[in-house]
Amino acid sequence: MFTNKLLTCSALLIILLLLSNAVFSQKFISLPNVGSDASLEQANLFTSSSLTTPTSSTTGKPIITRSTSSITPPTTKTTSTESPTTTTPVISTTISPQPYPQPSVGTWNTSCIMLQMAAQLNFTYEAKGGNFTNGLYNIPNNASVEDSECKSQTTQFIHLIWGPETSKQSILMYFDKSNDTTVLSSIQIHLTLLSEDFPDAMENQTVQLIHKSDGEFKTPEKMSYHCTRVQKMNMTETLDAKQLIGWISVSHVQVEAFRMANGTGFSVAHDCDSSETSDVVPIAVGIALAALILVVLISYLCARRRSTSRGYMSF
Ligand SMILES: *[C@@H]1O[C@H](CO)[C@@H](O)[C@H](O)[C@H]1NC(C)=O
Ligand SMILES: *[C@@H]1O[C@H](CO)[C@@H](O)[C@H](O)[C@H]1NC(C)=O
Ligand SMILES: *[C@@H]1O[C@H](CO)[C@@H](O)[C@H](O)[C@H]1NC(C)=O
Ligand SMILES: *[C@@H]1O[C@H](CO)[C@@H](O)[C@H](O)[C@H]1NC(C)=O
Ligand SMILES: *[C@@H]1O[C@H](CO)[C@@H](O)[C@H](O)[C@H]1NC(C)=O
Ligand SMILES: *[C@@H]1O[C@H](CO)[C@@H](O)[C@H](O)[C@H]1NC(C)=O
Ligand SMILES: *[C@@H]1O[C@H](CO)[C@@H](O)[C@H](O)[C@H]1NC(C)=O
Ligand SMILES: *[C@@H]1O[C@H](CO)[C@@H](O)[C@H](O)[C@H]1NC(C)=O
């Protein structure tokens, strides 16, 4: 009778721990940005409390091993973020083509748009033989602002140009505002393939690359959009075309359109990742705390029941 109760109690405890364990590993693995300081801090907070409380309150069952296994998902994640730096290319003695350089970050201002980004294109063009091939191209960070639409309160753009006087290259970025939200509406790029950049390209070739936005760079009014990681956007030849002819990869983006003319610097940043993690972490911590309280409660009740039944036997 008494052993029966003890068994059900400990079985209940183990099931609970397993459950919270499963919830946890899922929550933390699904975090989109593991490197974020906030999520790591929260994870550490939980692991330290889960280590101390259950051991002091439980009845000597080997539950510690269960709770330590719940720590492993976050810790292995943190170590894995460091590992890529250790891999170094060994085959550098052979004369091989240099990898195309990473794009550098540029900053551009107009009276209504402030833009900071690094951008690289990967697109298809026609080679001399008539075959199509892929090429990479970085938007130079010394491109200059050609013009900008600032009067409209619904659609604004910034127009950057670079390259030799006779064959200007350009990028246009359009922004829309509605419902107190600013969003990128399209990117339009016009390239003349110069022989110094694309020696194998068919002569006098121009390429038009258009990205129709899928809601990128979305941010509330009077805030700037911020995103450090690389974002890849599909590009087609015309606005309606279905066939992809390339991608633009943007990183280190901070952009703000529909600015007041008298503002200085970027407004408060709306980060592309913090908005996603901000509600996942509190939910995970909440579930953990609830599970912890349940565990403590059940072990307390079990311990009390055992001690009272012992008391009966000794009398
Ligand atoms: C560019 O696109 C081609 C075709 O999809 C791909 O094979 C190549 O890896 C891409 N290059 C980079 C640097 O992304
Ligand atoms: C074009 O592609 C075809 C098939 O892939 C190949 O046989 C031919 O040699 C290529 N031509 C040139 C000029 O590279
Ligand atoms: C931009 O930089 C490139 C090399 O980085 C240089 O060749 C070019 O003259 C520069 N253009 C301007 C307008 O400064
Ligand atoms: C947001 O804008 C859309 C049309 O652009 C409109 O249908 C919708 O009602 C707006 N929502 C709010 C909350 O204003
Ligand atoms: C390219 O343009 C130049 C100058 O506009 C011209 O002289 C040349 O013939 C053109 N090449 C081809 C292949 O059309
Ligand atoms: C970009 O193109 C790929 C391949 O066609 C497609 O799977 C993906 O959904 C496209 N992304 C967007 C945002 O259109
Ligand atoms: C600057 O902007 C604020 C609103 O952000 C406005 O109240 C103020 O009048 C502006 N000052 C000037 C000199 O334009
Ligand atoms: C852009 O504007 C900000 C604030 O108005 C200023 O601090 C910065 O120097 C400007 N940058 C350029 C490249 O004009």
From TrEMBL:
<dbReference type="Pfam" id="PF01299">
    <property type="entry name" value="Lamp2-like_luminal"/>
</dbReference>
<keyword id="KW-0770">Synapse</keyword>
<keyword id="KW-0325">Glycoprotein</keyword>
<feature type="transmembrane region" description="Helical">
    <location>
        <begin position="280"/>
        <end position="303"/>
    </location>
</feature>
<dbReference type="InterPro" id="IPR048524">
    <property type="entry name" value="Lamp2-like_TM"/>
</dbReference>
<feature type="domain" description="Lysosome-associated membrane glycoprotein 2-like transmembrane">
    <location>
        <begin position="281"/>
        <end position="308"/>
    </location>
</feature>
<keyword id="KW-0732">Signal</keyword>
<keyword id="KW-1015">Disulfide bond</keyword>
<keyword id="KW-0967">Endosome</keyword>
<dbReference type="GO" id="GO:0031902">
    <property type="term" value="C:late endosome membrane"/>
</dbReference>
<keyword id="KW-0812">Transmembrane</keyword>
<feature type="region of interest" description="Disordered">
    <location>
        <begin position="50"/>
        <end position="96"/>
    </location>
</feature>
<feature type="signal peptide">
    <location>
        <begin position="1"/>
        <end position="25"/>
    </location>
</feature>
<dbReference type="InterPro" id="IPR002000">
    <property type="entry name" value="Lysosome-assoc_membr_glycop"/>
</dbReference>
<feature type="disulfide bond">
    <location>
        <begin position="112"/>
        <end position="150"/>
    </location>
</feature>
<dbReference type="GO" id="GO:0072594">
    <property type="term" value="P:establishment of protein localization to organelle"/>
</dbReference>
<keyword id="KW-1133">Transmembrane helix</keyword>
<dbReference type="InterPro" id="IPR048528">
    <property type="entry name" value="Lamp2-like_luminal"/>
</dbReference>
<dbReference type="GO" id="GO:0005765">
    <property type="term" value="C:lysosomal membrane"/>
</dbReference>
<comment type="function">
    <text>Plays a role in short-term synaptic plasticity in a subset of GABAergic neurons in the brain.</text>
</comment>
<protein>
    <recommendedName>
        <fullName>Lysosome-associated membrane glycoprotein 5</fullName>
    </recommendedName>
</protein>
<keyword id="KW-0472">Membrane</keyword>
<feature type="domain" description="Lysosome-associated membrane glycoprotein 2-like luminal">
    <location>
        <begin position="107"/>
        <end position="259"/>
    </location>
</feature>
<keyword id="KW-0968">Cytoplasmic vesicle</keyword>
<keyword id="KW-0966">Cell projection</keyword>
<comment type="similarity">
    <text>Belongs to the LAMP family.</text>
</comment>
<dbReference type="GO" id="GO:0005886">
    <property type="term" value="C:plasma membrane"/>
</dbReference>
<dbReference type="Pfam" id="PF21222">
    <property type="entry name" value="Lamp2_2nd"/>
</dbReference>
